[in-house]
Amino acid sequence: MAGPTAMRLSSVLALLRPALPLILGLSLGCSLSLLRVSWIQGEGDDPCVEAVGEAGGPQSLDSRTQLDQSDEDFKPRIVPYYRDPNKPYKKVLRTRYIQTELGSRERLLVAVLTSRATLSTLAVAVNRTVAHHFPRLLYFTGQRGARTPAGMQVVSHGDERPAWLMSETLRHLHTHFGADYDWFFIMQDDTYVQAPRLAALAGHLSINQDLYLGRAEEFIGAGEQARYCHGGFGYLLSRSLLLRLRPHLDGCRGDILSARPDEWLGRCLIDSLGIGCVSQHQGQRYRSFELAKNRDPETESSLAFLSAFAVHPVSEGTLMYRLHKRFSALELERAYSEIEQLQAQIRNLTALTPEGEAGLSWPLGLPAPFTPHSRFEVLGWDYFTEQHTFSCVDGAPKCPLQGASRADVGDAVETALEQLNRRYQPRLRFQKQRLLNGYRRFDPARGMEYTLDLLLEAVTQRGHRRALARRVSLLRPLSRVEILPMPYVTEATRVQLVLPLQAAEAAAAPAFLEAFAAGVLEPREHALLTLLLVYGPREGGRGAPDPFVGVKAAAAELERRYPGTRLAWLAVRAEAPSQVRLMDVVSKKHPVDTLFFLATVWTRPGPEVLNRCRMNAISGWQAFFPVHFQEFNPALAPCFYNADYLAARARLAADLAGQEEEEALEGLEVMDVFLRFSGLHLFRAVEPGLVQKFSLRDCSPRLSEELYHRCRLSNLEGLGGRAQLAMALFEQEQANST
């Protein structure tokens, strides 16, 4: 028995021998952890309980006992909300933007000191060169009632004394923007500022210090420590410094006499706060360049000029634009150099990846082309030549290449020729003969891709010429997405629905009124309806029946069912009514701030549609043209403000006078008026909530040729989808063949 037992034991040990270190380690760890727990528990009482006991006095023992007893079955106690009925209720108002509620601030505000003589020249040049780089740009002048140039925010103080102008400027910045910005940059209008560098400088500085940063200059007759920032080159003030300076402005204005506002500010800061100007802070140096008279910025190549944040003095606006052109070219060269360095690094690192150089995508650093997962996701190419495109919006097989598309193709061809010459010069120089074939497609991951077949003439250094056909590929990459600043709008705006009705549409009007009651009156939407009854030349006259009797009766019934509802209607007589003529009648009956929603008898409005109309139609900024989504009817139901329509209509009347205007009105719709005679944004989008019932439109032969063509095309496109029409034709052919 001993022999088999020993053999079993040895076999078990042999199996456990590889896991023996693991078992010993786990046993040792568990033992040490148990010993450590026993030591901790034996050190003394719970210090938290002792603290409770000390604070509780005689009740400390009871509280400790309760803690020990209820340690295992602890349950949270929910304290219900209680409001004292004797105290008045105060409604909590939320801020409009979450940025305000969180206390976030913008980084930089720029203030420009200008004058009566330079407001319309140098100040305008400053605005055109740097305004789009800063969140807020203000102009301060002592001229009272100054005429403000377009696109500029000018603050007039009414006194041109230097100390007064600077004092009032600082007071205005503190009062209106002290809580919204971290840095304030003050400059003169004869200063050119390299805006991206200044914004980067402000982004690298700490906002919690009192800082007065600029080009430090010494006061005449003062010590070495007494310095002020030269106003010609601009200077930065931190928000905390502005807050500390505000109480001393009145005293400085009465005690300090100076003919220059920058010296006055520097003396005020030194006398009241003991803070002088510095040119370097936290490793960041404020670099400036003094431009000599008659110096050409195109030929200036010194390091001080190339690295400057500000250039002064700038004597005229053309010099300001030349400086901006030079610095913009320098920034582009620097960006291209950084791109080449990054591409070289990507190429070097790609050799270490499993795919190797085969995994590189062209161009380097941009996302790879979109890879479709099914045939429904394949991105199609559009074919074009220099004169025509073969993918038209209206479905035609061929249409002229014009407008923005023509400019886009021309730019692509010129860029291809420029890149070829840059690569092969001076050995070869290429000249374009013509574009043989062109293809383009939009890749949502990359941008617009082009493939061009070019017929070129290659010229060698010796003058030999030869015709070549080459294929080139180009990519217009997607740039950085920017959020456009839009005016604030609200969903509380009242919408005025306008429904033009002709005699042929009178039978469908009761259904529209019922839908209007269900979608607008029942939810108590803030909207009104005006019925525009369009009579023909022989309709509704004396002795003739009124074709809109049923419509008027249905409107009266709706007013009876919904007390307080008022459905207005207007009667007009027109032989060939167009949208523009009808809107001319309606717009005169309403205030200029009215928000119009131009509907058709087949439209089914609802709360979602009206809210999107309120949010997307912005007075003086944008008109909204939602596309009906359902039942194959591509009619438009525009949303726009009456003031915008009147402005576009006045411009139409000014551009087209007399008989030409009358002829144009016959062939124009409201969208054409906004598109051709207004500077508003036109926002077109498919609106799934805007239901359009299908109907064959009555295309009156009295319409203009273009409107009649649109009407006929709408009827044809509204019959059904391509697959449905193809199936119907196929079934019809099968039936005819049998």
TrEMBL record:
Principal subcellular localization:
Golgi
What species is this protein from? Bison bison bison
From the UniProt record, list the coiled-coil ranges: 325-352
- Give a Pfam family name: CHGN
Q: Which PANTHER family match?
A: CHONDROITIN SULFATE GLUCURONYLTRANSFERASE, CHONDROITIN SYNTHASE
Q: What is its EC number?
A: 2.4.1.-
| Membrane-spanning residues | none
List UniProt keywords, sorted A-Z. Answer: Coiled coil, Glycoprotein, Golgi apparatus, Membrane, Signal-anchor, Transferase, Transmembrane, Transmembrane helix
- For this entry, the protein name equals Hexosyltransferase
Give a GO molecular function annotation for the protein. glucuronosyl-N-acetylgalactosaminyl-proteoglycan 4-beta-N-acetylgalactosaminyltransferase activity
Its lineage reads: Eukaryota, Metazoa, Chordata, Craniata, Vertebrata
Q: Does the keyword Membrane apply?
A: yes
KW Glycoprotein (keyword) present: yes
Q: Which family does it belong to?
A: Belongs to the chondroitin N-acetylgalactosaminyltransferase family.
Note the topology in the membrane.
Single-pass type II membrane protein
The cellular component terms of Gene Ontology attached to this UniProt record, alphabetical and capped at eight, are: Golgi cisterna membrane
Q: Where in the cell is it found?
A: Golgi apparatus, Golgi stack membrane
